[in-house]
Amino acid sequence: VGNSCVLLCPPEPNKTMVAWKISLSAGTNCSFSYRADRKTSKSNCSDNISWKSRPHLDPTIEIQQVGLADEGNYTCEVATADGNFYTRYHLTVLVPPRLLLHCDDRGNPVCEAVAGKPAAQISWVPESNSTKEEIHGKGTVTVLSKVRACSSHLTNVTCVVLHPAGNQSKTIAC
User: Fold this and answer.
1) What domains are defined for the chain?
2) Residue range 10-36, pLDDT digits in tens
């Protein structure tokens, strides 16, 4: 989320046509095309998706500021005298969770990995295990974990959040 994504298409010589067909997970479709007479068209695509440079030189597209709405299937077709060549991508957008760590009213540490996609994994140092998940729209998930019955000799605990978009940790004393 928020980064730029570049999708390559085969740089076939003597291409007569390049077409990107995009089927987004939200159910909408859009397309880009280029013909050898240098005619280009764009249909139903958001402004953040465009040719990376000039399509007659490079049929690569770029998605600026990737968002969840950009998830889906992207297919590039290049037509030449030798035939048609296809490249397919499935774009999955990762959303890093926001890490929240606090003490509940009983003095137990509570760790939350808020609105990540996919769901994060939470672990504790020292070890503990009480977690629950809350699923939000667009596939984001909040994971909540508590340390129960902290020992009186335990002064600090560390919440470790593991996620494909990056790992995080915070320490708290309750």
Assistant:
1) 5-91 (2.60.40.10), 98-172 (2.60.40.10)
2) 778 888 999 999 999 988 999 999 998
Amino acid at 3: N
Average pLDDT over residues 84-107: 94
For residue 5 the two structure tokens come to: 């994504």
Tokens of 12: 């076939």
- Residue 165, sorted as left (phi over 0), alpha (psi -120 to 50) or beta, turns out to be alpha
**Model confidence band, residue 122 (pLDDT cutoffs 50, 70, 90):** very high
User: What is the pTM (predicted TM-score) of this model?
Assistant: 0.80
Whole-angstrom distance, CA of residue 34 vs CA of residue 75: 14
Residues 6+ apart with CB under 8 A from 66: 1, 2, 3, 4, 5, 48, 91, 93
Mean pLDDT of the chain: 90
Q: Which contacts (CB < 8 Å, 24+ apart) does range 80-87 have?
A: 80/12, 80/13, 80/14, 80/15, 80/16, 81/14, 81/16, 82/12, 85/10, 85/12, 87/8, 87/9, 87/10
